[in-house]
Amino acid sequence: MPLWRQDNFGEISILLLTPKLRSDFYTTEALFIRFRNAQTRGVTVKYLSDGEIERRKQFLTRLWNLEELERPAFQIDIPLAFIPDSEITMYERFHDPQKMLERQLQEFRLKANIKDDYIPALHPYLGTGVFASAFGCKIRWFENENPWAIPIIDKDPSRVYDLQPPADTDGLLGRVLEFTEYFRTNTHGEFPIRMTDLQSPLDTASLIWRYEDFLVAMITHPREVHHLLNLVTELIICFVKKQREVSQDFIPVHCPFVWLPDGKGIAVSEDIMALIPEYLYREFAVPYNNRLTEEFGGLIIHSCGNITHCFPALKDQKNLRGINFGATETPFPGAVEALSGKTVLIPHLGLNKDIHYDDVNSYLKAVLDARKGNSGLLILVSPYMVDMTKPQTRGLLSWKVPAKLLEKDLQPIYSLIHSSRT
Higher pLDDT residue, 13 or 399? Predict the structure, then answer.
């Protein structure tokens, strides 16, 4: 087949479906810039054929329906978007949609030869504090780290009553919509758009209200906490609908980078779950998460830390589509025992400290040995793991990702996954 085709609108679609074509054709990272400067209106890049993307979607749809699969679903993750390079800082990418777009396309190219269940999607990510910023929290930016939201409430709980319901363009939310529109138009809608980072209502409230004071207030001033949670939940519902509208082809999951059919729910990050007792989680998290579930059809929860103590509450969560957790913090066998059959378990390698694995293979084997079957299991794995027990590798910024993934690094993962076929 040809390297490209020209359509009736004067645009060129580049069809890169084999390693040979890809290596012959790519000479720069700024592929879109190069072709916009040529005598075309733009360029559309396909890293996977339409048939392959459809095959993966059908397989993942069966996963979310909790069907028994012939093998475990899996995704090989390389978090390139969170790793600084020598030329462009994270700060620059947060403030320039073209630079962020190029970085994400670079990640797509890096993953193009991986034979897993990944579906490329663009992610207009401006940090965890975008919803907090809409309430007036200032954002502190860094050169090569994620931005922080500076809380506006501390020891005076009554200040929650001064907050007004924000618009869906307040704070950084307007810029998220601008990045979303930029990504869509500059790739001609070829890639779906992933939901921006969505901290749960409880996690977002803990960014607006100074963390330690917020934890105390859940016990001493529950009425004020609930007032704030109501405001945050309404903003989340409003904004997600708006971003979906702008995206057109929308994936309602920001973490982990997996595909979920739009209409099956949305994903939230809820790291605070690991820090509070189950009775507080039931009172301050579950009701607001249920409102999101009722609005969007279901919920995927991502949480770092050990969340075993909250499994009883998660069992009662309405339409819990998936739970993503670090298998080096939350023991995977306990998750299987408590939640298997109710939701999709999505383990990943966390800090590799509390529960330690010597290598990727030992992690994979432990997960595969503890599973009850291939239903409701999506394994996240990377051939390049972080070991937080070693001082020289403490911190994600120490990850070293090669320019090209080597087949010898991927083959052991493929072998273990496919040896688990039923």
Answer: 399
- Strands 299-303, 320-326: pairing is parallel
List 44's β-bridge partners, or say none. Answer: 13
Quote the pLDDT of residue 79.
59
Burial-class residue 399 by CB neighbours within 10 Å (0-12, 13-18, 19+): middle
Helix axes 173-186, 97-111, angle to 10 degrees: 60
Whole-number Å distance between alpha carbons of 18 and 16: 6
CA distances (Å), origin 147, targets 107, 138, 191: 21, 10, 26
| Strands 12-15 and 266-269, sheet pairing | unpaired
Both structure tokens of 389 = 């027990």
Token digits for 251?
């994936």
DSSP string, 235-293: HHHHHHHHHHHHHSSEE---SS-----TTS-EEEE-GGGGGS-HHHHHHHTHHHHHHHH
The structure tokens listed for 21 are 């074509």
Residue among 105, 97, 104 nearest 126 (CA): 97
**CB 320 within 8 Å of CB 342:** yes
320 and 301 Cβ atoms separated by less than 8 Å = yes
pLDDT tens by residue, 269-288:
999 999 999 999 999 999 99
The Cα–Cα gap between 106 and 343 comes to 33
Summarize pLDDT for 29-68 with one digit per residue, the tens. 333 333 333 222 344 456 788 999 999 999 999 999 999 9
Q: Give every CB contact of residue 165 below 8 A, 6+ residues apart in sequence.
A: 231, 234, 235
Helix (H) or strand (E) holding 346, with range, is strand 344-348
Beta strands 148-150 and 138-140, pairing class: antiparallel
Residue 128 CA to residue 205 CA, distance in Å, equals 12
pTM of the model: 0.87
Q: Which residue has the higher pLDDT, 405 or 153?
A: 153
